[in-house]
Input
Amino acid sequence: MSDALLTLKGVHTHIGPYHILQGVDLVVPRGGVAVLLGRNGAGKTTTLRTIMGLWQASQGAILFDNAEIQKETTPAIAQREIAFVPEDMGIFTDLTVHENMLLAARSGAIDKERLNWIFGLFPPLKTFWQSAAGNLSGGQKQMLAVARAIIEPRKLLLIDEPTKGLAPAIINAMIAALRELKEMQTTILLVEQNFSMARAVGDTVAVMDDGQIVYSGEMAELADDAELQEKLMGLSLEAHQ
Amino acid sequence: MSDSLIKPRIERPPLSEVIEAKAPLFLVPVLMLIGLLAIGSGSTWLTLTAAGLAMGMMIFIMASGLTVIFGLMDVINFGHGAFISLGAFAGFTILGLLGGWIESPSIALNLGAVLLAVAFAMLVTGLAGYGFERLIVKAVYGQHLKQILVTMGGLVVTQQLIYVIWGPDEIVLARPTAFQGSFVVLGAAIEKYRVLAIAIGLALFVAMRLVLSRTRIGLLVRAGVQNGEMVEALGYPIQKLFLAVFMVGCALAGLGGVMWGLYQETITAHMGAEVMISVFIVVIIGGLGSIEGCFIGAMLVGLLTNYTGFLIPKLALVSTILLMGAVLMWRPQGLYPVVKAH
Amino acid sequence: MMMKLLSGDSPRSKMLSAVLLLILFGLMFAPFLFPGTRSLDTAARICIFIVLVASYDLLLGYTGVVSFAHTMFFGIGAYGTALALVNMGASYSAIVLGTVCGALVAGAFAFVIALFSLRVKAIFFAMMTLAVASAFLVLISQLSGITGGEDGLSYRIPREMTPAFKLIKEKVLGVRLNGKLITYYVVFFSSLCLFLVLLRMVNSPFGRVLQAIRENAFRAEAIGYKVVRYRSVATILSAVMAALAGSLMAIWLRYTGPATTLSMDIMVDILLMVVIGGMGSMYGAVIGAVLFLLTQSYLQDLLGILQESLGSLPVVSDVVSPERWLLWLGILFICSIYWFPKGVVGRLRGT
Output
């Protein structure tokens, strides 16, 4: 947890006429779970999409493994071993669960052992292995989205709100899965609005508002400081709870 | 909802929805039956049905590329017709050089000439497709209005270039000996060439389905149709995939062009733009981006054109427009609407 | 007064104003400035095409909808007038009735097409209109009992509008004041009026909503405008205008056939005129039509000279052959879309 795997330095992103990210500075330590909190429209999703190259940063630098990636195309960024779970999950609904996973495995073949481990984390995927992904429930789709991201070992996972609109039982399965990944020293940047989820898995935390990081520090610090929590929760969560 | 993790369930669609989803499959037999009732004579009906299926197969070959290109990259190439003409001219050039093979009574030589012509035509149109995508389409991805205009401009320019290379006159060429004349089946005359067209069309349809369902490229295409962004986020350069599919689509137009040219035994620079009317109708009926829909749509249009062509000749093309209207009233997005992820 | 006529939509550039004035005076005094049947015919065509192209721009440039059925509406107007003149004889009432019916039918057709396809996608509409217009062309060519088929219809128009009718015996400025001249001015002033009406339309609140929709359909819908309804109305208005232009064509030529009104070649010509002149500006239609129709003959002459001087080089001389003028306009068209999306008008305005 010593050095940074991913660093954003003064990143600005414009979408059409809108100036969404206004100088984001963010550090994701190697082997840790960084949580990005913030209210709707604060720029969390845009931050992830900018890292992935799905939006172009108009200014600033994004360093991954000490290489500047802000000018690279999305496939090139993904090939640097970065996996992305978008907010809408990005499931290919006409493809089967199997085919979805097959595409995510860039080597062209699925590692049996790793697949069994994933089945252990998300049992429904085994049951519906040959079904069209479009027939899965919302929670099962989310499991598939995360499973796709971890079908091969990746250096960094970008996960956008994996608990959004899910039932408690599935949220628990998600938390268990992320904890297991954390034990395996996987670096994760997690966008979350659910603070209990954030607290359960996060090492560091950053809070966004109006396209900028307004707080960053250790998760433990925030979890212990009720006053700070109150202040930031007011900022980040009041709007939807 | 909360127990879905413990007892995984999958929703089974009710029977009515299953029937609704499969309904388009019955349209072709239903149309054939209506045709039989309207025409009355069994042998005439058989001849017309064979002609209709052959025509449908050729339109399918030309339309399939167009619909896949649309599905994958949201591009409708209004210049697609130029590739049909270009393929026909390229293929006929080879056939012209192989005059001896064509006139020979040997089926092997006949077939060899046609295969060489097709291969050359597909090569030419595939490469032309490469140039077209890089020069004309690439800059306007995602901008429909400009896309339509620019590809229409590409059509005009390509047609003019055909005039420059091959001259302004139409080219007339008889079919190879083996594909002239007819078989007689149950008292109905069925042209040999139509049987060949049906065979090639069917083979292509099966091959396309296999490629799409069994190969990694096919998987990428199907995924890309639904959500191109996610395919990129998984690490695949979708631009290259686009380009490859565009070239294949244009090569298929070239194949269709040679076949259509041999069917008509006459080719002009405008022939592509003329067939495109039926191609567009087929693509709209099938649902933009759907290969299955395109196939069914092509069969329907081919059959209907031949049936009405026999019953009320003047309304042949108008009847397909009416068919399109009827289908759109039933399913506003065509028979098999392609579900986009966003 | 002037601004009111132009509905407050001034050319906003000295160069453009000068060119437009030149065109206006050129057309207004065409019979005296450029005597001869052929140049008068070109002038009348320019007048009619300005209306046709401007009405297309209402759809393409202002509403952002691509239609390939514009010649169909043009043809419906022409055939309406032609059929009335054929069946009712050469009377003014036939002209009026035919024109009105043509415009109504065109509007109704446009309504049906809009109903089917405007909800879905721009691409859908473009394909649909292309298919329908082509089928219409084939139908008209085949219903020879009514429409004269491929040969089209020739008919007489009221005597006062034919060359046989002499207004006064003497020539004025070397030009005979006959019925043909009257017809020219009927075409000229009708075109001028229709153009000013179109200018009024695009500068009305309705026109501004259309442009808002073109810029961002979602936002316009969110603000509360019924996007489909506005697009449908624009389609219908544009079709009616095209039909009126068609009626003028029918009167001017005293002949109506598939090749002069319905063919896809004319559709491509219209596209070239709109884009090269400048989409989204009514003045673009003026410039585009004038430029195109003049170039059609001028460029061919130029290419003829070029070809002669390059006669020895086989391929090159084919490329510059006068018959290949469309090749060069096609390339110009593609280049304009990429680099001058506002066309010649945009250049003149320096934007």
Summary: The two ends of chain A are 33 Å apart (CA to CA). The longest helix of chain A spans residues 168-183.
